[in-house]
Amino acid sequence: MSLDTPALEKYLTPHKYGKPVLSPSGQESEFDSNAVDIPFVFFHNNRFYMMYVGFDGKGYQTALAVSDDLIKWEHLGVILHRKKQGRWDDVGAAGTWILREDDLSRLPTLKKFKGKYWLVYHSYPQNGYENGPAEIGLAWSEDENLLEWNRLDAPVYSWRDGDEWESGGLYKACLIEDEGQFYMFYNAKNTNSGRWIEQTGVAMSADLINWHRSSENPILRVTPDHWDSQFVSDPCVVRDGSQFVMYYFGYNLRHAQDGIAFSRDLIHWDKHTEPIIPHGKPEEIDGIHAHKAAVVRYKGVLYHFYCASRNYRDGDPACNFGTEFRCISLATSHPL
User: Is 165 within 8 Å of 217 (Cβ atoms)?
Assistant: First the structure.
């Protein structure tokens, strides 16, 4: 997309915090023993909340943390536990979005549909790290503390009836409501073995249950021989005036980095040509990856939370895959 500097600058966060705001526990019995991932930040009950997932070597489970200043976060509790065997989502549940106000100029407060809060998550069919083709489910809550969630018995969205580009399984979902219609953005892979391509699509619904795919899918595609040549993934869509902004990450088989795209109609998107959160130097907290955005504007400052990873070293609280330290970090538009 052709953007002048002032237009792009308002979405940039060049000041990296350089440290974790949330780290894995390193405790063998805990849901986040190996890693934390996929931040989603919102405002509720006069506090900031972060929904995030933990990985324990078997699968994802989802938790909440709370903060008063967006810097210091306190774990509140696990809200999507591993279920007993027999359900489609018994390996785990990775919560990625709760229906909320999506205007970037306002606090991202939750909103209800049919008197309930709605959370979207995905689940993989086999033990291990993202093992097997995932499907997308919904959970709802009437608990104002957001600690008790009720999952629907079956997925609401599946690769099984999708197109070739998504036949390897589904990933993060992001929900937006516009003019009485819900839009669900999600990334998916084209195969479940070997090296795959991940791209981003969208589906529409009037009731959050029954979805139909856009004929334009995938609406965000990889760019060959570029920084996003392999993946364009993990959409985070917000509204800013008359346009929509998508934060996403690109991957080129070496580094995952956050980028940005713009749209007027939620279907046709123009990507900025370069990453807006580049990976850091090898010794920095995001020396390998800087990806999976969650953005909040508060008191004139844009906060861009992301999953950061670098090579594991002695003293880190946890090690993922034997080589990686993975945490949640932050970049801001102004120095803190």
Answer: yes
- Name the strand (E) or helix (H) holding 6: helix 5-9
Relative to beta strand 212-213, strand 231-240 is unpaired
- Closest by Cα among 308, 306, 298 to 336: 298
- For 208, the token pair is 């959050």
Tell me, what's the pLDDT at 2? 46
In terms of CATH, what superfamily is 5-332?
Glycosyl hydrolase domain; family 43 (2.115.10.20)
Q: Which of 111, 237, 146, 261 is CA-nearest to residue 186?
A: 237
For the chain, list residues with pLDDT below 70: 1-6
Type of residue numbered 103: D
Which of these, 300, 272, 294, 271, lies nearest to 10 by C-alpha position?
A: 300
For 283-292, letters b (16+ CB in 10 Å) and e give: ebbbbbbbbb
Predicted local confidence at residue 146, as pLDDT:
98
Quick one: pLDDT at residue 83? 87
> Any residues with CB less than 8 A from the CB of 308 and at least 6 apart, and which?
20, 280, 285, 286, 289, 290, 326, 327, 328, 329
Q: What letter represents residue 308's amino acid?
A: A
Label the pairing between strands 181-189 and 198-205.
antiparallel
Beta bridge partners of 144: none
Instruction: Provide the whole-model pTM.
Output: 0.97
At 66, give phi and psi (nearest 5°).
Answer: -125, 155
Preceding peptide of 218 cis, ω within 30°:
yes
- DSSP for 294-308, please give it: EEEEETTEEEEEEEE
Strands (E), the chain: 15-16, 35-44, 47-55, 60-67, 74-80, 94-98, 117-123, 135-141, 150-151, 169-178, 181-189, 198-205, 212-213, 231-240, 243-251, 256-263, 270-271, 289-298, 301-311, 324-332
Q: Check residue 9 and report its DSSP letter.
A: H
Write down the domain spans for the chain. 5-332
